[in-house]
Amino acid sequence: MQTVFPIVMLFLMGTLALVLYGGHRREEIAREQALSRRLKILVPQRATAGLEKPQQRQGPLAPAMALAMQWNILRNLDRWLTQGGVQMGAVTFIMFVILVAGAGGALFSLWAGSAAAALYGLAAGAVPVGYVHLERNKRLETFSQQLPYVLDFLRSALSAGHTLNRGFQMATENAPEPIATELRLVSEQIRLGSTLADALDNMFRRVPEKSLGFLVAAIRVQAEVGSSVSEILDRVTDTIRGRQRLQQEILTLTAQARISGMIVAALPFILLGFFTLVRPGYTHPLFHNPMGVKMLKAAIILDAVALGIIRHMTSVD
């Protein structure tokens, strides 16, 4: 017990230092990401892929594949953090999650056994991941809500006699965040020589929102067929608004079931943690008795299965 407390304090101090370091590096990481995006704009993906294949053939196959897989994982994680609005690198975020999980496990080891401490450590490490996941969904939802108004602005700009590229530039100056940053990147890509369809396709890779996919498909059809852009924007806007209206109705009808599922899933863990801290004797058999450990594992598995069933019942594609 005497050695556990210094370890906990060490983990907490390391976590605090990492948070301060991440805040100090925030602006620098943002500049590096902006530079990386501009480099991706200037270098086409097909040309880059063609240059990478000969280099991979020259070296050993297994290390090259492992390095490429590791790079893809870090790149996807960095993109996921950017979509969540977190100005932190992928490696820094992984270290932060590990430190939070270690600190949580060491802290709970003062009151519970090793199995329970490991469980609570994993739960503590899942908190930053869940936060980024919620922020990412929130930003994507905000982007989806802002998209129809931007399309209305573009349609008004076309009706006033402006070109579509000029309409994007005007929308960049008047749109709120987070869609303003994406529109600014689209305008910059068009200014550097990219087509509107390719620029919107790149924005759809950065922001994987289904409503934006409708716009990208419509613009590509217009570029190939040559129909009226204003009419296409009008139909896409109506489609997006109808889809959002249907989603709101579904969320309203399934709100009670979703809240019930979250309460049912969280209540056992909350009660277990409360009694572990207040009356450790009540939960002592669950952590130190072999039968109690088996019952605890079975309860966790059944709780996760119940939550998955409820979410599957309330989800509508």
List keywords for this structure.
0% strand, 317 residues, mainly alpha
Low-confidence sequence ranges:
41-59
Secondary structure tally, helices: 14
Give the termini separation. 51 Å
Question: Which radius of gyration do the C-alpha atoms yield?
Answer: 25 Å
Summarize the structure.
With 317 residues, this protein is mostly helical.
Describe this structure in words.
It is a single chain. By secondary structure, the chain is mostly helical. 86% of the residues lie in helices and 0% in strands. It is built from 14 helices and no strands. α7 (164-174) packs antiparallel against α8 (179-191). Among the domains are: 139-252, Up-down Bundle (Receptor-associated Protein), CATH 1.20.81.30; 254-317. Residues 41-59 have low confidence and may be disordered. It is elongated, with a radius of gyration of 25 Å.
